[in-house]
Structure formats: structure tokens, C-alpha cells
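Standup notes
- DV: blocked on the single-chain target, sequence here:
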Amino acid sequence: EKGDVSDWLSAGGTRETLLEMVRAAIPWEPSTEPQDGPNGNEDRQGEEVIRLQKGALGVVVDACETILARPDLPTQYRTFQRGGQLVRVATLPAAATTGGIARPQGAVVIMEAQKPFLLDALGRFGRFEKFDARSKKWVPTDPPKEVAETILARAGLWPMPVLRGVVACPTVRSDGSLLLEPGYDAASGYYLAHNLSVRVPVSPTLAEAQAALDTLAALLAGFAFVEPVDCSVALALIATAVVRPALASVPVFAITAPVRGSGKSTLMDIAAVIATGRRSAVLSATADHEELEKRLVGCLLSGDCIVNLDNINGNLRSDLLCQATTSEAVKVRPLGASSQVEIPNTALWSANGNNLSLMGDLSRRALLVRLDPGCERPEERVFDFDPVARAMERRVEYVAAILTVIRAFIAARKPNMGLAPFGSFERWSDMVRAAMVWAGAADPCESREAVMEDDPDAAQLQALVSAWWARFERTPQNVNEVIKAAKDDDALEEALDSIAGGRGGVDARRLGYWLRSHAGRVVDGRKIIKYTALRCGVQWKVLPMEAC
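- DV (later): unblocked, structure below
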């Protein structure tokens, strides 16, 4: 009673006996008897009657907002405010693919609370009457459309609770306190949609944290990590997925391998199953930059907990993803809307692909997991167990293990681990990274060097700065002078060609734009800076850091 399959298995039940019970159960038939509920007389007795009268629209709207803000409404009819919109929490009844984003059955998403929904909720939980002149009595009626329209127009005045996001497992708040009970949590602004009963020690010890981390690591035993740090990043991915509500921003987790079938998507599914009870939302790969941005906006608006940019072979660049990774809130324009809305950034972003490279500013915001099975057909390998199935079966245990590691580190008063700063992700570094290193894992940020080395933008910058310094040293040059000098300088010509080369040679406009976008970035102790002279116009020069 009041349990699920995981409870049955934990109590010693087996699959076979459970199936026998299912076969022996009497088929359920819907009841034909009237049910007590919001439309029945019992529930409606004592409720305030909203009488519709001319000249009283404001009073009526106030009363209707009070109904919609009631905390005791069923989850499917609760209304929240988020990013200047009224929204609701919904569970997908079936797997669906919308706008290039595939979500599994049962996924919990945030949807806009449109006018018909508001009217439906008001009609179910409010009593509306209008005066009938013929009978001289107040008679029942439906809530008028102008009430819902007025409510939608009252942005900034709504009494509905503010919804930051939805989380599907027990987690922690930003102050480190445990957040275990399902439902809306006013302190964090998150709605907890789960049925897990997780027990975490009040003050776990280092030994308990180490044992918990070993439990998580055993789940990943079948993965062919290149180095120990790759396993550490994978563990950090799983931990971050569970405690994401406590963090203002988290890095992008990238998973790469030389061949398909290496377990990239499987690793992401493990993190998603533990954190949400189902596989992650999958954002299909596309080379169209605008289409990619639209899909990212769709994930932000829907409040997806975990988003997997799947099968992105080659390079990944996205300004919106850079912003969504480091900002607490992101301004986006919903499809078909003329104005922007500010949406809280609550997603964990990941990307996977064969020989994946992160470009530009995205590379400094990412951690990398490298997998290499070292065989021609890795998809034919045989494993001792299915890690995704095990993650689902023992989900309660793994969630508790993650929370034990985090809480133990907090109980130990967060010992200083002497870790190098990770700009833009200080909170994540202080809570997840440091806790894992304290419990015995390798520093996940050791993977950042590999990410930066694989960045094509960084390689181009390094080549140009080196060739520029060798040719001009500190002498300022304009774009045309640099292009002209490259005709008899192989290193400079090769660097310019990789940046702005084309059929007609190096494009001066493209080169100028590239210099502007990379001005100030430091490589090998030098950087490109803009230099403006009165007679020569815009020029550029390379200077050592000590001369800047």
C-alpha cells in the first residue's frame, strides 16, 4: 500500500511474484457513483460565492486570484508565476517530440497557464453566480472570459507563488539543508514531484561519505574511462543532477568518445534516471545555429531538469548555451511572441558526440568525460549488468548516497581542499567539486585542460598570436597591412587562412570581426589589443601581459 515497484523490490519481493499479483488482480472499473469533489455539494459548502455584478470586475478578479493561489489545490490545477508568465506543472502522459526535443513518458514539465486552463480551474474550485432578472434569483454560471484575460494582464500583481523550477527527487536547498518532502517548497521556489522515501544521516561521517561514493562508482564499473579524472567527472555529473536546485549555475558536462556505441548516451541516462526517474530530455543535433537556439529556448521555457544535446559530432558553439550555463536567469523570446521573458536557469546541460569539441567561451564553461573502449565494435560488448536498469532499481539508494556525500562535507564544515578557483561556478565548486575530492575522488576540473586544448578557437588564437608576434612584435598594424605581410610569411598566412580564408583569399572584414571578438583573450602570456591612432584608424597589436 502506498508503495511502488522499488519499495516492493527493497522489501524482498521478486519480479515473478509481482507479476502473479498483477495477473490475479480484479480489473479496475470506473465508478458510476457520484464522487465527492470540487463540483460536489459537500466540498462547495462554506465556500465564498463570487457574484458577478457590473462595475465589480476588480473585486471579482481579486477573488479569482485568491482561488488560483490556494496551496491546497491538486497539483494539476495549481497556478504559479515564472518569468512574467502564469504557468502550471504537468506530467506528459506519453513520450513526445516537440520542436526537436524528445521527452519520455512521465516527464514533468512547466507549461504556460493559458486562458482556457484558468477558466477550467476557476470553474472547478469557485462558485460563480449571476442574477437572473426573470426568476429574481442568483443562479450558477461559468466564470467569464474577461476575468481570465484580466488575470493574465496583471503581471507583477499576482499572488500566486513564484516557481523557479521542478525537481523529481529529494535534494538540498542552497543553504545545504535537505529538501525531502514532495510538493511546493516556498523557501527554494521548487516544486518536488517525486514519491521517493530517502533517509540521510543527520551528520554523516567521512567514512560514510567515502562508502557512498564507492557505491556510485560501482555503478559505473563497465565504462571505459580514459583516466581516473573522467570517472570523477561522471560522478560529478550524477551528483550535480541531484543537487541542481541548490546551485545558481553549473558547468556543461561534455561526453566524448572516438566511436559510436561507447556509452555516451548511457552515461547521461544514468544521471537522468537517478535524478528524475526517467531518461533525460534529448535535444536533437542540428548544424543550423538558429534552430539550435530555438530548441534551447524550448527547454528553458519547459523547465527541463536535464537536457542532453545528443550526437553532436564535431564542434559545438552556442552563445545562448554559454549564457544559460552561467546566468541565474536568461531572457528568451517564446515562439510566436513579440516580447522577451526572463526564465530562471535551472537545467543541467550536457552534450555528447564522437570526437566532440567545444568552441569559444563554451570551452571554459565545460567539464569533459572521455570514453575509449579500445575496440572496433564497442556496441557488441557484454557487461555484467545494465547500469541504467540498476540505477532505476536502486534509485533510492543512489539518491541517498549523493546526499550523504554532500551533507557529510557540510557537517565537516567544508574543509578547505586547496582547489584552484573555477570562475562562474564558485558555488558548484564549493558544494559538489570540493565534497567529491574530500570523499576521495579526483578533481573533476582536471578535465578542463583537455577541453581547452581541443577548442579550435583557442588553437587559431594561439597560432595567430605566435605568428603575429614573430613578424610584428609590438608594432601596431591594421587588417590590410597584416594580410599583405602574410603573402611572404607562411606561418602568418596559414593562421589567417584558418580564420578568414576563402576562395578569394583572406577576407578583411571577417578578419576584423574575428579580432574584435577575440580582443583581450590571453594565450601564451600575450594578447591582442585594439589600438586606435588618429591618422591610421583602427589598428591591432600583440603585447605581453606585463606590458598591458
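- Follow-up: The two ends are 70 Å apart (CA to CA).
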